Structures are given as structure tokens and as C-alpha cells.
Amino acid sequence: MALEQAGVPTVAVHTHVFARLVRSVALANGVPTTRQAFVPQPIVGRSAAQLRDSIEGKDPISGRPFIQEVIEGLSAPLSEEDLEGTSFQRSTPRVLEPDTEDRVQALFNENHWTDHLPVILPTEERVARMLEGTNHAPDEVVGKLRPTMFREYWEFTVEKVAVNAVMAGAHPEYLPVILALAASGQTARSSSTNSFATFSVVNGPIRKEIEMGDGIGALGPYNHANATIGRAYSLLSLNLQGGSVPGDTYMGSLGNWYNYSATFAEAEERSPWTPFHVQHGFDQIESTASVFFGGWYTQAGYGPRATWQEKFKHSFAASEHYLPPVIVMDPNLVPSVTFLILRRYSKCDSNHNQTIRRDRVSRGACRNRRQCDKELAMRRTVRSLSLFSPYLSLSLPPRRLIFRRLLAAVARVVLIPLAAFAAQTANAQLTSAATFDIKRFSTAGEGWFETFYVEETEPLQAALDAGKVKADTALLVTETAAGKLALLRDQMAYHHIAQGTVDGKNWMATF
Amino acid sequence: MIDRITVHDPRGHPPKVVGKRLAPRLESLDGKVIYLVDCLFDNSAIFMEQLQQWFGEHLPAVQIRNITPRESWVDDPDMRAVIATEGDGAILGVGL
Does residue B67 sit within a domain? Predict the structure, then answer.
């Protein structure tokens, strides 16, 4: 749209499953007839020849040749409708037409206003009772939400939040927490192929006052406050942002169970860690809600045949370094894990002039400024949002609890320490290509993978003798011009790309 | 008599939609500079390479230039400025 507004005729190419979404986004942007062309999904995993077939084939939506759609999209004259655009006012009523309870339940379900489980219907009496949980006016604007960065924001009031809280089965005394979550501006029903979810953690005195669960089953369906606050956050996100409907306002490939309900309290009294909200500048007697966005993997199981260290390694091997993991664990395990985290937590400083990762052999200047910039920006974002809370007093319940908003993208970043070493052998028959240019590979994973620069190596036997590696440690062995080079499998599972020089010969390995 | 109930509408308030005009279309693509914008999704670069080859084989009078934004999912005003200044049209693509 920005290019069109700059006077550049544009055709956007999509895969066919996005057809409905594209139309609705265009309409919401005031353009009823944008020029689009569609190819069959997927694009991922297709060969060049297969993609060429799509280009020379038919647009699966219009049934006309794809390339014709592209060319005409750039050169066919505009219609009157194109030239005028579409302006209109949308509105949603405060209450619906009276009907039977069964019909209203069906209406809510058919309109995708629920999570497809039965809801408590938000009658005027129930909503009025819910509003007793806050002293903020029903018509006060709380904030706005949208399912993705490409959609328009929808606005909502305290009353609208209360309506969704009723539907979730929440009690009025939960409303301050639900309002704080709504005010975060972070949807719990985002739309991404990745099927992201949002979960929230409550800290401070209100946890106890509303009897939230922070013990056995805290993350499961075993506590009324946890279950209904999380569900309310999900339902309000769905309804107050303009929907979360597959093919239209939701495009997650598999979906995510965390989208139903994912809210719990931190077990502050039993944890050796400083409470999360205190770490972010709040007083322990203040109540906060923290929102975490992401959610791909859940690592389960801690059986008699697996140590927590092994579980940790597996978990972090599956984590992306640009979306650091959030760790939620039983307080009983925390002391030993905390030791690991404090000993090995590392990062580049803000000037990029000090690399203090202990899992690297390299020393000196940062080699990946771009990634570090992202991580630093993320940390700054967390900090600034902790301090800047425009809705600090939004949810001042009668008992004078101060409720604050805290949006956190990352809780703790943990990098498993591993060392690289080389196994030099007498077999040095291989030679590197004369044209090999190591710089050509150094940016292969830029922005995605952090290249592991190996600047020191040592014989495998020496590493074994020194206890740097155990006899059963998993290794990846590759041939180099100077012989065989061994890399720790777990380390490569994190970096994916490694490079270095052995005896004057450059080498590069990917995993 | 059937009991009827009145309930609240659970939806938020959408913004007003303000109409926007499309850019004027080209009379012909001959001699025009068309940018192929690789949106950086997996395989989209190969798709754009194939599209570029198609134009080279079938419409060689069209000047095709490939361009990529700074990074995925983020608007790149500098890239847009290049297209607006040096290009006559653009083809964007393609997602998953």
C-alpha cells in the first residue's frame, strides 16, 4: 500500500490460502480492488522448476494465467472504484437484539466470538456485577489491539473488557488483572504461521487475594482464577481486536493450545530467585502482570533416566537465539539451575567492544553486531516498558492495590557453555580448493545464526585428558585440509555454522 | 412465552475506513523499470529469480531489477524510496 500511495503501480504475489485475508486487509485499508496474483501453496520446499511451473500456470483464485494477472495488474486501466477507494464507518452495538439463550449461544459460536467452548452469556446484569471489580468508568478507553502488525487497531473500553471477562467465567475481583492484561497492547490471539501464543504471569499481593495457583498444576486447568483470567485474556483479544478467524484474521498453521488460557502466578515465597516484577523495578508489595510472547516448544518429562542438565541441553538446543527462552520451573530445581545460569550468562556490551561469551574460544571485538543490536534493543524495550506504563492506575480496585503493566519479551537468556576442540590426525591428505574464500561464508546465517568462530584448537586427546570433553560426548567430525576436526554436537546445534583456520587453511562447517 | 435475554456485544470498536486510491497504471511495460521485491520468506528469492528469467525470455523490453528489504517483516522506507525514485512498477512476493 505504501508503494501505491507513493505512485508506484504494484502487484503483490501471495499463495492461494491468503486470498480471503488479502481481501479483508485491503478493504480495511480503504482499497477494495488491490492488484493481486496468487500461486499455489507452498512456496517453501519447491524446486526452481516447480516454481517456474507456478509462474507459467494458472492463478488458482482467478483461474486465469498467473503472469496475465501480474501484467494486467501493472498495466490494466483502473476502474472508478479503484480511483475512489472505499470509505465507510464501522460500528458494533453495545447490546444485541434480545433472543433465547440457546440462540444467543449459537450466535456467539457462529460469529467466532468464543473459543468454541460454552461461554457465560454477558447479560446486562452480569456485566454490571463484573464492573464492580474496578472503580474505572465503563466508558473509559482501555487501549487497542490488533492480530498482526499489518492489521488495523481496534479500540475498546472498560465495559468491553468486562463483557469478555463475564464470558470467560471470571469473578469481579479478577477484573483488575484482566484489565491490566488488556491494557498491555499485546494480543493473546496473534496471527502468524508460527502459531504464536501469549502467556502471562502475575506477581505481587493480588496473587494471594484472588487465590491464584502457583503450586501443583499451576500451568494446568486446576485453579479457577488462573483458568478464567487466562481465558478472559484470550477471549478479549479475540473480540476486541476484530477477530481471530482462520483464513481471515488468523493464519497459524497448527494453532496453539496456549491460546485457550495461559496465566499463572509466580511462587515468590518459595523461589530463590528475586520475584520477576522486582527484577524489573517494581516493589515487592506492588502487583503486576507480565506478558510473554512466543510459544513453540514445551519440554516435558524429568524421569529417572534423564538428569535436569540433559533436559536443559535438549531444551536450549531447540531454542532460537533470537527468541530467547523463558524458563518456568519447579522451585525445587531452581537453586542448582541458578548456579548454571549465573556462571554462564553472557552477552556483548552496548559498545560491542567486549565479547564475554564463555562458550566461545574467541576474544575481543564482537563478531555479530547485528544480532547483538537486536538483543540489546530487546533488553532496552523490556526496561523502557517497565518504566513507562500509561495505565499505571487503570485498575485501582477498592483495596488500593496498584496494578501495573509489564510487557516482557524475554525473562532469562541462558547459553549452554561448550568448548570447541580439534582432533588432529596424521591423515592430512585432503586439500582445500584454491578459490575457497572464507569471507564468502561468514555471513551465511547473518540475522539467523550466530557463526561460531574457532580461533583455537587442541588435540582431542589433550581435551580428554584435561576433562574438557568426556568419552561419551557427542561429536561432529568433518574433514579439513589439515585433518579431521571435531566439534561438539550440542554447540553446533546452537550455532549451526562454524568456521576457522587450521594450519593456514580455512574451513567452514554447517549443521 | 419464550424467555428472551439481552446481552452485550463482545466486540471492540473498529476504526473508520478511509478510502485510498491506487497509483495510475502503466500504459505499457516496454522500457519500464519493474522492481521484483523479494520479501525474504523461504524460497521467495528463487521464485523471484524464476520470474526475472520469465521476463527476460518473454518480455525482454521490460527492465527487471531485483531488490530486497533490510529484513523480514519490517518496513524499509529506504528500499521504497529507491523503487519510487528509480522504478516504474513493482511486484512483491511471495509468502509461505
Answer: yes
- Rg of chain B over CA atoms, in angstroms? 21
> Tens of pLDDT along A299-342?
665 566 666 667 666 666 666 655 666 677 777 666 655 444 43
The residue segments making up the domain with residue B50 are 43-93
Query: Which ipTM was obtained for this model?
Result: 0.91
Q: Yes or no: say if A43 and B48 are a contact pair by the CB < 8 Å rule.
A: no
Residue A301: which region, alpha, beta or left (left: phi > 0; alpha: psi -120 to 50)? Answer: left
Angle at A273 between CA A268 and CA A277, to 5 degrees: 60
For residue A83, give the amino acid letter. L
Q: Does B18 fall in a domain?
A: no
Interface of B with A in 18-47 (CB under 8 A): 18-29, 34, 41-44, 46-47
Q: Is residue B74 part of a domain?
A: yes
Taking an 8 Å cut-off on Cβ atoms, the answer to whether B8 and A31 are in contact is no
pTM for the model stands at 0.69
Contacts of A100 in chain B (CB under 8 A): 2-5
Subunit contact B20:A11, Cβ cutoff 8 A: no
**Nine-digit cell string for A40:** 499455489
Write out the three cell numbers for A1. 500500500
| Grid coordinates given for A49 | 522448476
Q: Would residue B86 count as lying in a domain?
A: yes
Contact call for residues A54 and A69 (beta carbons, < 8 A): no
Q: Quick: pLDDT tens for A21-54.
A: 888 888 887 887 778 899 999 888 899 999 999 9
How far is residue A465's CA from residue A179's CA, in Å, rounded to a whole number? 59
